[in-house]
Amino acid sequence: MSAIKKVKLGNEGLVVPNIGLGCMGMSKIAGMDIYGKADEKQAIATIHRSLELGGNFLDTADLYGPLENERLVAKAIKGNRDSYIIATKFGYEIDDNEQLTWNFNGKKDYVKKAVERSLKNLGTDFIDLYYLHRLDPNTPIEETVGAMADLVKEGKVGYIGLSEVSSNTIKRAHKIHPLTAVQTEYSLFERTVEEAGILKTLEDLGIGFVAYSPLSRGFFNGEIKSPEDFADDDFRKAIPRFQGENFYKNIELLKEIEKLAIAKNITTSQLAISWVASKGYLPIPGTKRVKYVEENITGASIELSKEELERLDNIVPLGTSTGDRYDAANMMGIDQ
């Protein structure tokens, strides 16, 4: 297995491996399993194996659990905090009883409350990268980012970022305090961030781009053959991309993508990860299994030629409709 490559994330000084580990699926969210049943022991082993391979960039959020995922990460990194780069997120409001209200909260006092809770749950006095998970439509981004900037000054946070935001929001936020990263769903099946000109905005401002769900929520691992393959409580059942006509159309696209993976003697998942990394972006595929973290990290080191990238673009041209990435209610939470 080749050595993991290090890359600069944005222009503020943060250096990370060229692939991160998304930890969301290692815990339930609001009582619901994400991508199948979670197993804490297996999840911690996956985090440790990732570190052995050089994959020390972990992505979590207070939403996951809520709070349980940060606590799981704390167990995994205990006694070895300095070996990891930790990114976490806030913005989905969690009350004092550790219950999600499902409101967004970017108010100054909530930012301070959320970071203290995350520091405690992660068992650390320092968060490397702190994101606003979703824009609070009732709070100016200037207020939220101003409060996040205070955390940097206080030494509680190293760098700041935003998730699922528009170019306009990014520009306004960046004027208050330099952003290191913006995180959005991005894959061969989800390129809205490209179509909307957001990637161009990030490039112009020197902000890094972190791609979550680069495997399109498991579409690319080939295990889901029909909409009936999902367990009753699998949240993907509610996502338009995995429903009806969209699902079967996407399966046909996947078959074409698989042909290139077979020709390269790699998995379709590795090809999808390589596609993101080859574009200069940072994929953070989620997994809770050792074998997949090994496969994913290898995928980030595979280089695609210009011809191979063009071939993939011809299979799934920019603008291809694959179905929304969330149900209608959650799509409303995305700043567009």
Secondary-structure element string: EEEHEHEEEHEHEHEHHEHHEHHH
- Give a count of the beta strands, DSSP E runs of length 2 or more: 12
User: What's the helical proportion of residues?
Assistant: 25-40%
As a whole number of angstroms, the C-alpha radius of gyration is: 19 Å
Number of helices: 12
Question: N- to C-terminal separation?
Answer: 40 Å
Q: What topology, given as strand order, has the largest sheet?
A: 3-4-5-8-9-10-11-12
Blueprint (SSEs and pairs):
Elements: E1 6-9, E2 14-17, E3 21-22, H1 40-52, E4 57-59, H2 68-77, E5 85-90, E6 92-94, E7 100-104, H3 108-122, E8 127-132, H4 141-153, E9 157-163, H5 167-176, E10 181-185, H6 192-195, H7 198-205, E11 208-212, H8 244-264, H9 268-278, E12 282-284, H10 290-300, H11 306-315, H12 328-331
Parallel strand pairs: 3-4, 4-5, 5-8, 8-9, 9-10, 10-11, 11-12
Antiparallel strand pairs: 1-2, 6-7
Helix pairs in contact: 1-2, 1-10, 3-4, 4-5, 5-7, 8-11, 9-10
Would you write up a description of this structure?
This protein is of the alpha/beta class and 336 residues long. 39% of the residues lie in helices and 16% in strands. It has helices spanning 40-52, 68-77, 108-122, 141-153, 167-176, 192-195, 198-205, 244-264, 268-278, 290-300, 306-315, 328-331, and strands spanning 6-9, 14-17, 21-22, 57-59, 85-90, 92-94, 100-104, 127-132, 157-163, 181-185, 208-212, 282-284. The strands form 3 sheets. An 8-stranded parallel beta sheet has the order 3-4-5-8-9-10-11-12. Helix 2 links the parallel strand 4 (57-59) and strand 5 (85-90). The radius of gyration is 19 Å and the shape is globular.
